[in-house]
Design brief:
The strands form three sheets. The chain has a seven-stranded mixed sheet. The protein is an alpha/beta fold. It is built from eleven helices and 15 strands.
């Protein structure tokens, strides 16, 4: 719904609610400067029961001091009262402009109205309400089975700028009716975040308000998952799929972006090395700018591999590019290959560009995602308000 936080009258507030008791876990920003909602959530997430999340966009309530903390507490207390919950059973999130106090005269009536107008068909409206500089909504829902029971998992996400590995200005919420213990949910979610949101980069800036959260209320009725068995693996695969797809939607919607970049690192000496190498390339401003110009920037890619800190032979690695049904190797054994430059330009002009790195150092692989960077990114951030 639109509470009036945004000047353009767009939706800026949503409430995610489970009628049944639910366990939840979350991962928060690695930035030492944390927004008021994050500081409160870091305490509330320890509670055994979490049934609601209140999210506003247009104002991040970050760098707002003690008043910001009080305002965040008022948000969750208002929602808790409306939903007959304890305040510690509610999480909150604010995203948008920093260092501005929340307009509580608009927000509190908005929360009350949202709580009294809950709908099981409000997923797309909620996905729109959390957006800031995003150009499109990011949502996904899947169905699968565990022990014969139908399990539904749905997620919404936002993020367009200040996106960098190890959590950035992004928010995602996944809800499921799976029956899983809090301990197992915590483990699988942290593993999933490491493969998804922590492997994307738009501009190298890490935000104060990052948060990825999952709620599971057990309403599917299957037997409780409380150990790493085959049913846990089914749940983990589903969660990974949802989070990775949402992460890719975020990476592809970077401000001013024209294409999604996927960086695949193969044959690294360790998984950690594969991740570091993929992240390094995804975060390289030179690589991003070259991709905007559809230029096969093999020197810049090689440079990003070199300063990534991974263990490899600098005289023996390959770089390939891929897009659609076409692919080209542009570097072989650390030396530029002769290749069709017109075809390379065509590949790099697509909506999805895949960079494939073969480190020839082991068996480990990893994938990271990013986007190109062009004129519109600078324009958008030079005049950013809401």
């Amino acid at each position: 719904m639109a509470s009036g936080i945004k000047n353009d009258g767009k939706r800026d507030l949503c409430v995610i609610y489970s009628k049944d008791k639910a366990c939840a876990t979350a991962v928060f920003t690695a930035n030492k400067v944390k927004g008021a909602p994050i500081l409160i959530n870091m305490d509330n997430i320890r509670n055994k029961n979490t049934q609601a999340i209140v999210v506003n966009s247009g104002n991040a309530n970050s760098c707002t001091g003690e008043e910001g903390i009080k305002n965040s507490r008022k948000m969750l207390e208002t929602a808790a009262q409306c939903l007959n919950l304890a305040p510690e059973e509610v999480l909150i999130q604010s995203t948008g402009a920093l260092a501005v106090q929340l307009p509580m005269n608009k927000l509190i009536p908005g929360i009350e109205k949202a709580c009294f107008n809950l709908s099981e068909y409000g997923g797309f409206d909620a996905a729109e309400a959390i957006l800031t500089t995003d150009t499109r909504i990011k949502t996904l829902a899947i169905e699968f089975e565990i022990q014969g029971g139908k399990v539904v998992m749905a997620g919404i996400a936002k993020g367009s700028t200040m996106i960098h590995p190890n959590m950035a200005t992004m928010f995602s919420a996944v809800a499921t009716n799976a029956n899983i213990s809090k301990a197992m949910l915590e483990k699988t979610f942290r593993d999933s975040v490491a493969k998804s949101y922590n492997m994307i980069s738009v501009d190298g800036d890490t935000s104060t308000n990052d948060m990825a959260v999952v709620l599971a209320n057990g309403a599917s009725g299957h037997k409780l998952i409380e150990c790493e068995n085959q049913h846990y693996k089914v749940f983990q695969d589903a969660l990974d799929f949802v989070n990775i797809e949402l992460a890719k939607k975020i990476a592809g919607d970077g401000e001013g972006a024209t294409k999604l970049l996927e960086i695949q690192v193969n044959h690294a000496g360790s998984v950690e090395d594969a991740k570091k190498c993929a992240k390094s390339i995804a975060s390289s401003t030179l690589v991003k700018c070259a991709m905007f110009g559809s230029y096969p920037a093999y020197p810049d890619i090689a440079c990003a591999i070199g300063y990534s800190g991974v263990d490899f032979n600098p005289r023996d690695f390959d770089i390939s590019i891929q897009g659609g049904d076409a692919g080209l190797r542009i570097v072989r054994n650390a030396v530029k290959e002769e290749f069709d430059e017109a075809l390379a330009k065509e590949i790099l002009s697509g909506d999805l560009v895949v960079l494939i790195i073969d480190l020839k150092s082991g068996k480990a692989t990893s994938t990271a995602w990013g986007c190109d960077m062009g004129f519109d990114y600078v324009k958008a951030n030079a005049y950013l308000s809401n």
